[in-house]
């Protein structure tokens, strides 16, 4: 996926996919000190567990770790790669929400929760397995549509669960003037 494309189909097509894996994506970069440093600088986080192996061991880890909130940073594929055409304006990250065939020309996230499990360490490579867990048709003031519920498991190269994200999106056809 280069931009946020949406597969088209019926609500019945989407409902048939409940419980199945709809996408498996690999992070573009390994967990690395440079990206962690940039995150720490931007947020002014001063915790030695992210920069010092001895301090991380004293805190119960086997060495320095990356901030848990960076699971998307290291679990998402590249937005663009050399040789690809330019991205259209307003392109979004290569999330798999649009992989479910369903009606609707618009989509918005309505809820997200994340459970953090194993820490990320320098050198870890993350992958994400997207599973559709539910489809609920609904008419809102925005238009006719449905909620698509996803569970996304982010794992490291050893299969250890790093983060479990649950996200719902509302896919719909906008009402005129809405």
Describe the structure.
Strands 1-3-4-5-2 form a 5-stranded antiparallel β-sheet. It is built from 4 helices and 5 strands. With 178 residues, the protein is an alpha+beta fold. The model has no long low-confidence stretch (mean pLDDT 93).
Percent of residues in beta strands: 25-35%
Secondary structure tally: strands: 5
Question: Strand order, biggest sheet?
Answer: 1-3-4-5-2
Distance between the termini: 28 Å
Q: Largest beta sheet, briefly? A: 5 strands, antiparallel
Short key terms for the protein model shown above:
elongated; alpha+beta; 178 residues
Topology:
Elements: H1 11-16, E1 21-26, H2 33-43, H3 53-58, H4 71-75, E2 106-116, E3 127-140, E4 143-155, E5 161-174
Explain briefly what this protein structure is:
The chain is of the alpha+beta class and 178 residues long. The chain contains four helices and five strands, in the order αβαααββββ.
